[in-house]
Amino acid sequence: MLHKIINLTVRDVRFPTSLEQHGSDAMHSDPDYSAAYVVLDTDCGLKGFGLTFTLGKGTEIVVCAVKALAGLVVGKSLQEIVSNFRGFYRLLTSDGQMRWLGPEKGVIHLATAAVLNAVWDLWARAEGKPLWKLLVDMDPKRIVSCIDFRYITDVLTEDEALDILVKAQEGRQQREDQMLKEGYPAYTTSCAWLGYPDQQLKQLCTDALKSGWTKFKVKVGADLEDDVRRCRLIRQMIGPNNTLRWDVDEAISWVSKLAEVKPLWIEEPTSPDDILGHATIAKALAPLGIGVATGEQCHNRVMFKQLLQASALQFVQIDSCRLGSVNENLAVLLMAHKFQVPVCPHAGGVGLCELVQHLILFDYICVSANLSNRMCEYVDHLHEHFANPVVIQDAHYMPPKDPGYSCEMLESSVKRHQFPEGDVWKLHQNK
Amino acid sequence: MLHKIINLTVRDVRFPTSLEQHGSDAMHSDPDYSAAYVVLDTDCGLKGFGLTFTLGKGTEIVVCAVKALAGLVVGKSLQEIVSNFRGFYRLLTSDGQMRWLGPEKGVIHLATAAVLNAVWDLWARAEGKPLWKLLVDMDPKRIVSCIDFRYITDVLTEDEALDILVKAQEGRQQREDQMLKEGYPAYTTSCAWLGYPDQQLKQLCTDALKSGWTKFKVKVGADLEDDVRRCRLIRQMIGPNNTLRWDVDEAISWVSKLAEVKPLWIEEPTSPDDILGHATIAKALAPLGIGVATGEQCHNRVMFKQLLQASALQFVQIDSCRLGSVNENLAVLLMAHKFQVPVCPHAGGVGLCELVQHLILFDYICVSANLSNRMCEYVDHLHEHFANPVVIQDAHYMPPKDPGYSCEMLESSVKRHQFPEGDVWKLHQNK
Q: In which family does this protein belong, per the annotation (chains A, B) (predicted)?
């Protein structure tokens, strides 16, 4: 079967999370977690599902961008695409007219991610495997052939990438078995969004500790005194041996004042574009034992390359929906390995946990072979809308078993939350 | 009069330039020069016109993004906006939901530029001045109040910016008189697009020399042997004392081989996101006397800041439609001055010459006070569609005299070229 792609649909799906202050932080006070949701239809009936994450308003722009890319996908067969996946990646990212809109950044790259995520989902389904297993079983040469090395060869050549993958084959089976048994370690962001009152914060911490969570992220950056108070409160709750992490908007002096509560890292302390700024902050915070983590708004492999070159980060936070899907994330995982910087993925939002778990499982089994200082973000929201939601056991991501990239949303959820015509939004308009 | 903005319209305007290979280079083989074109209506009848430049396909995405921003503009008065222009800039670029789509990059930032260009046009019209003169006459404090200094204070504080502007007041009147008399020096890109055959190239060079042009840009980067041949041909035509400039896609070795034809700079030799890569290339080419120029795809002030910090460029190529309008360009002009790197704007496309001439006039009169190694790109295309087209005399931009930012297009041109319903496009579809 060729799995010829005969149709692409894209929908604007929004969840009214702003009503409950879920997802609130210093830069995003009222997000409605949303997605541009893509479905590929093939001539044999198999479907591919993909998405990119957004925060509500403007999702229609990403939907518009996906439609602009659709003509490059529809009519091609899955085999045609994956037999030259690097070429297909370039086709999407280097169109002579559309690349001006990026290149490889912002709306057009988010749309590229949604489309490519659907292609990877389709590929994994066609092979009858969850995506992480498709990658784990894939020949290293084939993996490397999916990556666009343009603009990163000064740091990682194709041969070096191949070498990393071949070397990491040793012990692969044991690590896969370990993951199937124990899962991949997670940390939680669900307890301490900026908009939550103290009482809710305390209750959520207590509940999380009972469920086995030992690592917590706290949203900060709006008011320093308030931050210190909230962090002390959480540090009291979780005790001295559990790990605390941060999001802040301003940098060195602010974080220095929070050093008493022993955060492991500070997250995206300045403009996500400011590589040299992150490097300065990282250098200043090193003596305090606080690392810099960044990546959820790092828009492509070229930016990650420079963050690594400049020693600007101690934790690489890949995102399954901002980078150009699995293809570009593979490049970042391999570069991070070369620099020996641990990858701790960004997750949460809509579907980010579902998707990124596949990538971090692959990273452990086939690239890093290391769990030290590594964990994957987890947020306990909106999983009920997915056909194959994540499974968390004792604060670990358990490897998905269903074929695909876990991107499929329940059709009933999509219908209810489609913007602006779904029932959920009609209801809000009538209020 | 308050000039309350009561309506915003945006249209997708495309010119079928790909049919004649105008604008062709190594990365953009078939551009249709296009624009998302914005008109603001006010309650007093005055209009503001703005645009951002695109390459054809995908312009509808930028149009969609402008519509998403419209709600932040319509209903406000011009006075309300310009009395806190920094705040308004942040409102557009930091919306809690939409900033995820950038922030300050790609489609959403191009749309921001189009909207803000229209606001600046409206402001200049309300004051009855061409935009450059509005800026030249503006109190330095007022100018500084238009700039968002977030993420650049490590290089340029508000006080430093003010200091630069105050210091440059000396000799301002003479420089303004000089500009009115002589105009601002330009160089031409019209002669040597990649897709032009040799005979056309020769004829265009001959004509240009006759009209007083002494500085030429050559598009290269597709085939090295072909490049060397084309460049020798042009160097033969223009003689040893005229300046030659470059666009290339690959870097050091390629350019080293072109050194014989003595280019002044090589333009955007690698990924526009690769600050450290540009720095490496700049260092390698310095002994050959070739500088690095970049900026037309540099997406915001934070990226320019780092290019300057890293000594990654010897010529700053600002763009009137990719950066966040005048506001963000002011920040870049001031940073470039601090680092003493000359600004040589990117122009061409649709309307880029019309707009950017205002910025470079302001730069000379009120910031740099220097013409050494400075010139503004010029391309002789599509000016006939503008209400106040640029005036070139003896290879110099003559300062515009009509009120506004020279963004207004002829309504008849807009109607004919609207995509896909304009006559020009209906015609192509029927062929």
A: Belongs to the mandelate racemase/muconate lactonizing enzyme family. ENOSF1 subfamily.
